[in-house]
Amino acid sequence: MKKSVEILLQKAISLKASDIFFFPKNDRYQIKVNVLGTNRIIKECSKEFGGQLINYLKFQSNMAVSEKRRPQLGLWIYSDEKNEIFCRLSSVGDFLGNESLVVRLIFPSTFFEENYFFEEQIYTLQKACIKNGLIVFSGPMGSGKTTTMYNLARKLANEKHVMSIEDPIEIYEPNFLQLQVNNKAQISYSELLKVALRHHPDVFLIGEIRDNMTAKVAINAALSGHLILTTVHARNVYSVYQRLKNLGISDEELQQTMQVISYQRLIPTIDGGAKVLFDQIEGKDLDKDIIQGNIQSRMTKDWREKLEYCYLNNWINKESFETFIEG
User: Fold this and answer.
1) CB under 8 Å to 155, separation ≥6 — which residues?
2) Which pLDDT band, with edges at 50, 70 and 90, does 24 fall under?
3) pLDDT given for residue 293 in this prediction
4) pTM for this structure?
5) Which family is annotated (predicted)?
6) How far, in Å, CA of 21 to CA of 40, rounded?
7) Which residue range is the domain that position 157 belongs to?
């Protein structure tokens, strides 16, 4: 069983999958991986064999093997000759007693390569990281926001104290102090932020600004001389600004703290890979009247021009161009 699990894990690692899913389906188990936000089947097996795979993983993660219905969480560190991967497990049983399992793979930050269409876009972010203030990322799940934030912060970690607060931790980075939200224990983003400020970090990575309290603490940290890298759920760069205003942040506070708003997508390339394209507004260009005038727009003119450049230079195909033209 150990060998079968290792084969599955090596397959997922080679694909840089974020998750492995073990789903019961009639009399069989279907095993899928999530790669760049898309699920793909990598194996189907008998119900008995699938159950054995799940039991092995649960045992390695100090979960109760005999418990099939109640939700359980576990953690296992998988090591091979090249990698040490943190595996976070979550299991639950359906009303028929069939158990499903999700394994989240938490890779070291050095595992991910920086891969961007336009180097000047990442340089804009690197330049902003030299200053204090707020850098906000947006984009759908699987677009590489966390990877981008970690790559930027890792370059600062030799000289600055970096702390991350996430729900959950997605990338393991030993050079950061990484804190994880635990709502069941009443350890929220805002509570961890307040505690973390007492440790006097230079740089904060905040997994997501979800509520008014977290937004206020993040803005106050930026105003008091910290660099904040964070994400906000929004459809585009204009919506990020509006979303923060809806969370109680004023135009004046945003104009004082905002370094860059950066929306990103991970776009498939013709050679079978994928690269990140950003849509960005720098703080010096923030104007509430311009934001209000474009709030119904999807993307900036620069996004469309850069995407067209990618297509005309045969970096992406027509399908990708048409898919991502509106973000």
Assistant:
1) 126, 129
2) very high
3) 57
4) 0.78
5) Belongs to the GSP E family.
6) 10
7) 112-324
**Confidence label for 113 from pLDDT (cuts 50, 70 and 90):** low
The one-letter amino acid code at 58 reads K
Q: What is the pLDDT of residues 146-167, one digit of tens each?
A: 889 998 998 898 889 999 988 8
Count of positions (residues) in the chain: 327
Same-domain check for residues 262 and 214: yes
Number of H helices, E strands in the chain: 11, 14
State how many domains the chain has: 2
Distance CA 271, CA 322 (A): 18
Q: Are 85 and 66 in contact (CB under 8 A)?
A: no
In the block, residue with structure tokens 């048409």: 322
Confidence of residue 85 (pLDDT cuts 50, 70, 90): confident
Beta pairing, strands 258-268 & 274-282 = antiparallel
The encoded tokens of residue 204 equal: 């904060």
**173 and 57 assigned to the same domain:** no
Q: Residue range 318-327: average pLDDT? A: 92
Q: In degrees rounded to 5, what are phi and psi of residue 303?
A: -60, -50
The structure tokens listed for 296 are 């119904």
Burial (CB count <10 Å: 0-12, 13-18, 19+), residue 206: buried
Contact 17, 105 (CB under 8 A): yes
Classify the C-alpha dihedral 9-10-12-17 as positive or negative.
positive
Comparing CA positions, the residue from 278, 285, 275, 269 lying closest to residue 305 is 278
Q: Summarize pLDDT for 286-295 with one digit per residue, the tens.
A: 765 556 556 5
Which of 108, 136, 164 delimits the end of a domain? 108
Q: Which helix (H) or strand (E) holds 240?
A: helix 237-246
Which pLDDT band, with edges at 50, 70 and 90, does 321 fall under?
A: very high
Distance CA 141, CA 145 (A): 8
What is the pLDDT at residue 134?
95
Both 116 and 133 in a single domain?
yes
Identity of residue 91 = S
Tokens, residue 185: 């224990």
